[in-house]
Amino acid sequence: MNKLHYSILWAALIIIILLIFFSIYGAFIGSERAQNFFNSPALVVYWFVLGLMLITGMTIFRGLIRTAGFLLIHFGCILVLLGAMLGSDAGHRLQQKLPGIDKIHRGQMLIYQGQESNKVITEKDSRIKELPFSIRLKEFRVDYYEPKYPRQPQDKFLLSCRGAVRDYISSLAVIENDEIVAEKNVEVNHPLHYGGYYFYQYSYDTQAGQYSVFMVVSDTGLGLVYAGYVMLCAGVIWHFWLRDIFKKARKTPYGN
Questions:
Q1: Residue pLDDT, tens place only, 155-169
Q2: Helices (H) and strands (E) in the chain, counts
Q3: Domain map of the chain by residue range?
Q4: Is 148 helix (H, G, I), strand (E, B) or coil?
Q5: Whole-structure pTM value
Q6: Count of Cβ atoms closer than 10 Å to residue 202 Cβ
Q7: What are the pLDDT digits (tens) for 47-57?
Q8: What Rg value do the Cα atoms of the chain yield, rounded?
Q9: Count of other CB atoms within 10 angstroms of residue 172
Q10: 54 with 214: CB under 8 angstroms?
Q11: Cα 256 to Cα 254: distance, rounded to the nearest angstrom
Q12: Which of 27, 153, 174, 256 would staple 182 via disulfide (CB 3.0–4.6 Å)?
């Protein structure tokens, strides 16, 4: 192995160690700060370098191309990285410069019960943008926990549980060309997915329950990320398990 190969291996090792440290740091600073951190200009350069190293490794180390497991793993990493970059703030800004692509990255929309809206307040600059379809809030309700035992005045714990919220449920309908094209009951962690966006239950009218607030998140790049993870898993399974099984099956005479 020549000096160039050694240099690439050491550079790849350093980049992977940095990725571990970045991931640990991002896990402890909160989701909002982590999002800003991973979308910062310095980290954008890092992601490009990481992708370049993956492609360079596949080009220089020919053994990766000849080994199916390694090839799937490397391609999977590239797809995950490409999908994440497309779905980032910088990725959306880049796409906005292209004709016909102007997706909202993240934002919020407030809808009153019985009404519909297509206006989204963007998260970064609080601008109002419009979706190519409308969302109607047909009904909103709050489910509460029921105590297992009758409440007694002296039982402070049960009294403190009175009115504990179990779930927020918004019954939504998607309106496009004056027709209902999709319907779903949106709950926490059970969003509506339509038209390239996810609609998450975010907040609601705590006083009268007359409106609901939804977090709108673009799904740009998610398809590539999912495909990349599938390739990663397939590559790992093939390299560590299936490859040896197939080798043994080939060496074993038929019928023995």
A1: 444 444 455 777 889
A2: 9, 8
A3: 3-96+221-251, 106-218
A4: coil
A5: 0.77
A6: 18
A7: 888 888 888 87
A8: 25
A9: 25
A10: no
A11: 6
A12: 174
